[in-house]
Amino acid sequence: MTESTLAERVGAASDPALPTHPDIATWRTATVDDVDAVHAVLAAADAVDHPTWTTPREEVAENFALSHVDPARDILLAFAPDGSPVAAGSAMRHPSLDEHVHVNLIGAVRPDWRGRGVGARLFGWQHARAEQQLAEVGGADDPAAHLPGEIHVYAGEKDAALERIGTTHGYRTERWFSTMHRDLREDVPELTAPAEIELVPYSADRAEDARLARNDAFRDHWGSLPSPSERWQQFVGGAFLRPDLCTLALDVSAGGGDRIVAFCLASVNEGDWEVLGPHAYIDLIGVVRSHRRRGLAPLIIARSLAAMRDAGLGMAVLDVDTESPTGANALYGGLGFTAYERDRVLVRRY
C-alpha cells in the first residue's frame, strides 16, 4: 500500500485520443463484431514473429466476452484504405485487486505494414488507456486505489522495435521467459507415487478445486495474480484443454479430503502443428505450498508426458520463468526439456 492513490501517481488520464498516421485510413475502437479483424492481424503477425504457435480465434473471442473488458474502450484497430485491418492492440486490466493493479498490453502490426511507425502510434494509445485504467481504480478512500500499479507487455527476444518503443514510455525488461521443447520419442521416466497420493486425469467436476489449487500454487510466482472464475472456466471449458493429457495429484491420506495438491494441465491446438508437428502445450504446472518438496512436480509431469506419447504426440512444449525461485528450470531440464526461444517482459511501475 502507498499513501498516494494510483490516480495521483499516474496523473491526468482522460480517454486517449485516437492516433493519427498518414497511411492509416481509419483508427477506431472495437465492437463485438471485430473478433475476426483482430484475429486476422494477430494471425498474420504470428506467422512471422513466432511460427511455432498461433493465436486461436477462440482466444480472441474469449477476450471480447470477458465481463471486465469493454471493447469500445480497451481494444483499438487500424485499417488500411482498402478496409483491411493492419494493426490491433488492447489494454486489459486484471480483475483482481489483491496485491497490485495489473494491466496487460497485447498488440501487433501486420508484417507488410511494419517499419512505418504504425506500431509506435498503437502502443502510445495502449499505454494511455492502461494508465487510465490504473487511475480509474477506486476512490481516495478505497484501499485498492493505494495498491502498486504495473503495466506488462511481452516481447520476443528479437523484437527490438517493441523493446525500443516500450523504453520510450518508461518500460524496462524485468523478466525473461523461456519456451522449452521435449521430444516424446525419448524415454519418459516411470515414477511411483507415494501411498498418500493418487494420480488422475482432469475432469470437469474438479474445475473449482483445480482453480483454487492453481491460485495457491502460483501465489508466490512473479507477476501472478489469482485466476478469477470467469477466466478459469474459459480455459478449462475451452476447445483446447485435453483432460486425458492432464494430471491431478490428489491427497488421499486420512484428512486429505482427496483435494488437488499438484497439477499439470495441457492443451492441444492442431493449428500449431505445421511447424513442430503433433504436440501438446503444458499450460500450467503447480504444487500447492503445503505439499512442496515431496517430489510431486516430476511425478505429475512424467505422467502427462507418458499420456502425450501414448496419444501419438511427438513433442511437449512449455514456458518457464528463467528466474523462477522454485527451481523449475532445473526440473524441466532434468525431465528432458531444452530451451528453444525467449520472451522478455517489459514493465512500467507506478
From TrEMBL:
Signal peptide: none
A molecular-function term among this protein's GO annotations: acyltransferase activity, transferring groups other than amino-acyl groups
Acyltransferase listed as a keyword: yes
Gene3D superfamilies: 3.40.630.30
UniProt cross-references to CDD domains, sorted A to Z: NAT_SF
InterPro entries in the record: Acyl_CoA_acyltransferase, Bact_Acetyltransf, GNAT_dom
PROSITE patterns xref list: GNAT (PS51186)
One protein family per Pfam: Acetyltransf_1
Keywords: Acyltransferase, Transferase
Origin superkingdom: Bacteria
Limits of the N-acetyltransferase domain: 25-194, 197-350
Name of the protein this chain belongs to: GNAT family N-acetyltransferase
Organism: Microbacterium radiodurans
